[in-house]
Amino acid sequence: MLTYARSTTVAAVGGLTVAELDHLHDAHSNSIGALLAHIIVVERSYQVMTFEDRTLSAEENGGWSIALNLGAEGRRLLRGRSVEEYLEELMSVRQVTLAHLAARDDAWLDRSVVPAPRMNAHWAWFHVAEDEINHRGQIRWLRGRLPGRGVGSQIT
User: 3-state DSSP helix/strand/coil percent for the chain, to nearest 5?
Assistant: First the structure.
């Protein structure tokens, strides 16, 4: 499911320009680029929690908090990156995830996540997939409303 979700996210952003990635539909929306940055740091955060059995360091939290939280700061700061840059980072973070998952057995999925003991690793990685799918839906909606693209340009 992680691989399928990622393939549909990649398809949803193909061919977008920097201006389209940075476009804000309204004063309260996130840009497509900000949503991609969010998807990347959510996965990185869950790598830390599940594969490294720890909470985010102060440096990680500081560096990733804008993309994790989005909102006004994300609208202001998460800008200026090309689709190729986002796609490279999406691919890179996913390679790490898949390598770590391949090295673990099903019993590992049932163990509690150290920073969040009420959550097991299986639930944590389900959440990564469903979070990406949720934001991919937002990306498709936003793409269909980009100036000059029209609703008919949505990726299905």
Answer: 70, 5, 25
pLDDT digits (tens, 9 = 90+) for 10-42: 999 999 999 999 999 999 999 999 999 999 999
Encoded tokens for 102? 């391949």
Q: How far apart are CA 123 and CA 89, in angstroms?
A: 24
Structure tokens at 24: 């804000």
Sign (positive/negative) of CA torsion 3, 98, 53, 41? negative
d(CA 110, CA 21): 38
DSSP state of 111: S
Q: What is the largest CA-CA distance in the chain?
A: 50
Which tens digits make up the pLDDT trace of 132-156?
999 999 999 999 999 887 655 555 4
> According to DSSP H, which parts of 23-120 are helical?
32-51, 58-69, 71-77, 83-102, 106-110
Question: Which DSSP state fits 150?
Answer: -
